[in-house]
Design brief:
alpha/beta; eight-stranded parallel barrel; two-stranded antiparallel ribbon; about 15% strand; binds 3-methyl-2-oxobutanoic acid
Length: about 280
């Protein structure tokens, strides 16, 4: 049971049905990554609805240049720690690079993230190639978040990190993939670095929550890497991110400011969008 530090009110842990209801009710879903118990507690107490143990940990925790070196053991390790810190937020864990190349591998790795790590959903990157996989996992009790748009695990294939879905044919294909993944059983979609107009279309066309990162204000929710909003990630901060620490003065206040900005539709601003 979660206790709000400001009001003292208690709330049950969030479920996928509750996140779907938030979409139906037009309540924005505030999401962040976290990788350890201390930040998980802070995110939970700030009112973050969904916490992702992202394979971004390969970059912000492990210091790699990409997410490709991250292993299933790494994600299990960090998911266990985050799970211990959460009371209310819905916990999602990333399927890392090369952990879902076959349905058998995907099933056993996803089961580890849930059974050992405590995740309630797994996220995997990929479009049409993952439709069968989403159906396989969802049909066996493993909730799936499908990650479309920029897929960082494809960095070596793409030759860099680029906005996706700008051309009409690519946008059409992404809309189609989104609908087919949801029909196959995906309970959540994540769109990374896509034009705002495309994210809006997809969010309107599917029944499940669409969480955006660099996808404009009309996604059903927003997610950012926690170290980016605290401005402690090494290197240049992505265009779609914002430093919430500078104007807040403390980590708890920064996380609360982020949640409030998402809920009140103050974030993302036009400077964070792609066209
Ligand atoms: O790994 C991650 O943190 C992610 C976010 C960019 C959403 O997938």
């Amino acid at each position: 049971m979660y206790k709000d530090t400001q009001t003292g009110a208690t709330a049950a842990p969030l479920s996928i049905s509750r996140l779907k209801k938030m979409k139906r009710d037009g309540e924005k879903i505030a999401c962040l990554t976290a990788y350890d118990a201390s930040f998980a507690v802070q995110a939970d107490q700030a009112g973050v609805d969904l916490v992702l143990v992202g394979d971004s940990l390969g970059m912000v925790i492990q210091g790699h240049e990409t997410t490709v070196p991250v292993t299933v053991d790494d994600i299990v390790y960090h998911t266990k720690m985050v799970a211990r810190g959460l009371s209310r937020a819905f916990l999602v864990a990333d399927m890392p690079f090369a952990s879902y190349g076959s349905v058998e591998a995907a099933y056993s790795n996803a089961a580890r993230l849930m059974q050992e790590g405590g995740a309630r959903m797994v996220k995997l990157e990929g479009g049409p190639v993952q439709i069968g996989l989403a159906e396989y996992l969802a049909g066996r009790g493993i909730p799936v978040c499908a990650h479309l748009g920029l897929q960082p695990q494809f960095v070596h294939k793409l030759g860099g990190y680029k906005v996706q879905g700008r051309e009409a044919s690519a946008a059409e294909a992404m809309r189609d993939d989104a609908k087919r993944l949801v029909e196959a059983g995906a309970d959540l979609l994540l769109l990374e670095c896509v034009p705002s107009v495309l994210a809006k279309q997809i969010a309107t066309e599917v029944s499940v929550p669409v969480i955006g990162i660099g996808a404009g204000p009309d996604a059903d929710g927003q997610i950012l890497v926690i170290y980016d909003i605290l401005a402690i990630s090494a290197g240049k901060r992505p265009k779609f991110s914002k430093d919430f620490l500078q104007s807040s003065g403390s980590i708890p206040a920064a996380l609360q400011a982020y949640v409030r900005a998402v809920k009140e539709r103050q974030f993302p601003e036009p400077i964070h969008e792609f066209v």
